[in-house]
Amino acid sequence: MSYLSGFSILRELTFERRADDFCTYVACGAMKTKTTLATIMVAVAAVASVQAQSKATPINFANDVFVPATGHIESLAVAGQQFGAALLSLSAAVQTDNRFSNDLDSKVRRTTNSAPAGHIKCLIKPTSPGSADYLASINRTNRPLQACRFTYHNVTTNSPLLGKRIRASGWIKTEDVEVMAGASLVILNGEGHIFASDPMTDRPILGTADWMEIEIITDVPSEPCTIYFGPSLYGPGELWADDFQISIVSTNKPITDDRIWHVWSPNPGDYSMTTDLENTHNGKPTLCFAYTPTGEAPAGSWMWWGQDVRNPDEYRGHTVRMTVWIKSENVSNRVRPNLRPKGPFFKLLAQDKRVGGKNIRGTTDWAKHTILCEIPEDTQCLDTGFAFHGSGKFWVDIESLKYEIAEGEPR
Q: Are 334 and 392 in contact (CB under 8 A)?
């Protein structure tokens, strides 16, 4: 899972408002106008209709069941589990954000037989190209310039999805997207156990693109849980969405979720990852990570490359040592390997420690770097990877990467 610096963007949003305060907020908003009350009822009915669908697969979701909301799917999933789906629907209905229009577009249909497409449009005109406006919205206002259309599906003990590998798919069309568009999915249960997450930050849709089919491949646990998903837009631009559905696929179908090594970033289009045949270590090719725009990266620009170990049984109760060889060139801020044990609702359970030296900055030759972290017994997920803040380049000898139980530490 991603390394976060000073603020939460894609994963770490928590809802600090107590449940009673949250209820008061929703109730006050709902009483403003009769129009708002009507909107609430439509939203609640739309989300409720999702749960009444057939047990057969594929499970198809009409465009009008997706609830418009500010923020991203994972933060909404956490809210839904902590405060309840009905309260979540009410909150989404009364919450307004004049920076976006978010509804159905009767003028856009993917095919002649399609319903009006879901539509998200950022109404803030860009002041500069690229990701600067979006990053500034995070750094200066704490109101990230992001919106989504979300829905959810409860997986019960008699669901055909229980314990299956699934494909969540849909069609997306974009115009002038500066930062990222795509879809997002998260699976969790009522206790906040995160089973899967995929916000598509390793394969963002940028610029203007005609209708394309997107897919998220993941596994549903063999226990009751909830799947939250839908299209999302980050920063300036426009997105249309149509024909989202969930189907069962073969276990031979490769997963796309965060258990595989992947890029994560608030501005993923600004970073690249390539295999470098020239900058070798011990005679072998290495991985090169680079900030690709010219000039210095704006404040808040970062990427993370890593994976989420969602069954960390062998590490629980141990101190784990992570070692890897890295070199860098003109890194403006810092590069750092990390180990991050997580609990319910993405909660960080322990801080890792760098052994000797400081974070990687500037230009450095190949060197061995070591991270230690005590992994609590109640760890549900272990995030591990490399955090890169700012501009420049760094290289990783991925074959040198090792995870070991530190000597002398009991299980």
A: no
